[in-house]
Amino acid sequence: MHHHDHTNLNNYSPPPPPEIPAYKNQASTTPPDEGRKYQRPRRQKRNPLLIPLIAVSVLALVMSALYLQTLFAQAQRDTSFAEAVETCDVSETSPYIEVADDGDTLLMTSEGDESLGAPITEIACVFVELEVPSSIINRFETTRALDGTQTGTWDVYEATWNYHPNSGSHVTITVVDPD
Predict the structure, then answer these.
(1) In degrees, to the nearest 5, what angle opens at C-alpha 91 toward C-alphas 172 and 174?
(2) How far is CA 61 from CA 16, 67, 70, 174, in A?
(3) H/E segment holding residue 66
(4) How big is the chain by its Cα radius of gyration, in Å?
(5) Which residues are bridge partners to 171 per DSSP?
(6) 168 and 117 in contact (C-beta within 8 Å)?
(7) 131, 155 Cβ separation under 8 angstroms
(8) Angle between helices 50-87 and 120-129 (to 10 degrees)
(9) CB under 8 Å to 129, separation ≥6 — which residues?
(10) Closest Cα to residue 88, out of 127, 126, 128?
(11) From CA 130, how far away is CA 157, in angstroms rounded?
(12) For residue 32, what pLDDT is reported?
């Protein structure tokens, strides 16, 4: 058996260090401490009025849009009742469907068992032209005398109505501010 002698450590030499690749062996041009510090690239100074100027511009755009929307809604509502009545071929002299309060109110009365009024088909036509939601139309159609005055709102409108078989339905639709 071949036996190795491990008692003689004086002849031991560690293996050589691994070779450093040539691209890593280049001398550094920065001093040793400089490489460790993070230096932020210089930025140009920001104009201190830039953010307030942007905020004021955005606010002006929003206010202009709201103003134009209100102006458009005002112009639209001034004619929408009159247009609905005209589209439904209601006589301008009808005492049962009339536009009042400079175009901000629409008054309608349907015929009842003991009183004259507008045919329910004309009132239904006006409802369609004003885009009254189905939920309100259903409540209108099912209102009884015991129910008293009912109310419904949509878009910029508010409708109130009541019903009695003898006098028919009385409907008032007004333009309300969309606040």
Answers:
(1) 20
(2) 74, 10, 14, 30
(3) helix 50-87
(4) 43
(5) 108, 161
(6) yes
(7) yes
(8) 160
(9) 83, 84, 87, 88
(10) 126
(11) 9
(12) 55
- Non-local (6+) Cβ contacts of 145 within 8 A are 163, 164, 165
Rounded distance, CA 152 to CA 143, Å? Answer: 12
pLDDT per residue as tens, the chain (179 positions): 555 555 556 677 777 887 877 776 665 555 555 555 666 667 677 777 777 778 788 877 877 777 777 666 655 544 589 999 999 988 878 899 999 998 899 999 999 999 999 999 999 999 999 999 999 999 999 999 999 999 999 989 999 999 999 999 999 999 987 55
- At 88 the three-state DSSP class reads coil
**Residue 109 has what pLDDT?**
96
Residue 26: φ, ψ to 5°: -70, 145
For 11-20, b/e burial (b = at least 16 CB within 10 A) is eeeeeeeeee
157 and 171 Cβ atoms separated by less than 8 Å: no
Q: Report whether 108 contacts 126 (CB < 8 A).
A: yes
How is residue 52 written in tokens? Answer: 């307030």
The structure tokens listed for 11 are 């002849």
Give the chain's length: 179
CA distance readout (Å), 33 to 28, 29, 30, 36, 38: 12, 12, 8, 6, 11
